[in-house]
Specification:
The chain has about 375 residues and is α/β, with parallel strands linked by helices. It has an eight-stranded mixed sheet with strand order 8-11-12-7-13-14-15-16. Strands 3-2-1-4-5-6 form a six-stranded parallel sheet, with helices on both faces. Helix 3 packs parallel to helix 4 and helix 6 packs across helix 10. The protein is globular.
Amino acid sequence: MKIGIAVLGAGRWGVNLIRNFLKHPNSQVLAVVDPNLDSLAAVQKQFNLDASVILAADWSQLQALPGLEAVAIATPASTHYTLAAAALKQGYHVLAEKPLALNLTEAIELCQLAEKQQRQLFVDHTYLFHPAVDRGQTIIQQHRLGKLRYGYAQRTHFEPVRHDVDALWDLAVHDIAIFNTWLEQTPIQVSAIGTVFPKQEGRGKKEEGINKEVAAEIQNQFASSRMTANHSEGLADLVWVTLTYPDGFQAFIHLCWLNPDKQRRLTVVGSLGTLIFDEMSPETPLIVQRGNSDWVGEENNSFESAIAPQPTGLRHREVLNLESAEPLQRVCDRFLNSVQTNTPCPTSSGSASVELIRILSTLSKSLELGGQPLIPF
């Protein structure tokens, strides 16, 4: 039996959710909600939706829709908490775009509400379902990089500029989630510094296919939550993050939405090689750069190496083969499975998302304090 779903938000990401749920054999899209009537018309035309699919400008029109079992939320971040809470209270399973909420208290509250209602709260941390992240985790777990030294990531682009969250909350969660997954650890200390740039008139008025005015309408309609911690001068456009893990590994993340050089790259450096996940290289998204920066002998116990260590300058680039799969399709499939079995997904459960929000909240505090290192609270 197919699971009836309503998608809230018909912007860039909402359209992708609609596409995946329409083609999945275990789901039925019953409704799409967006206050922007042009977006609803575009969705109807793009997918040639059946007349039975309700196109609504107001979520309240669907709250007692027959056959509705689950809600997928792809609206501005500041609306996530209110929408998810309302859906859970009415007995619906929830798939929420990241971040689940904009403060730790609300994220925990949503988890508790889902448990009370015996409904699944699933957060769309899409990168954790990426074949490159799966393969990268295997490479690290097999110790093929040797001793892990440090990591760094760049996640930058030239717009969209958000109006309800800063670059930290918009972008950092992806790389933090990947580092945590690959290292099988969470940071014990974090810090962040940021910069707010003057905005040009007319710049950054669109976000996720919903313009600034419509985003404000959504926030008013759903009495949205607000960030409780942010840069004192406004929403930071450029943020530098440092994560320190229990074993001493450090990760450095560059985040910016005013960078003409779009980057989606994450690197882990080890004594025997470097693992590089570069989403902007579709033909070679995951590679291992062989070789090490040590003297031969540090990782080699042979007699010859011990008596005659030599520096290694040679590098060998190994392109790793990956399964052909769309990460978001995997997200939708796993969500539907969680709904059918009413069991949480360890990768993207609400409780897993809470830990990421805990880190983001602490980073926001560090940002406010000018980069002071803090222990995630």
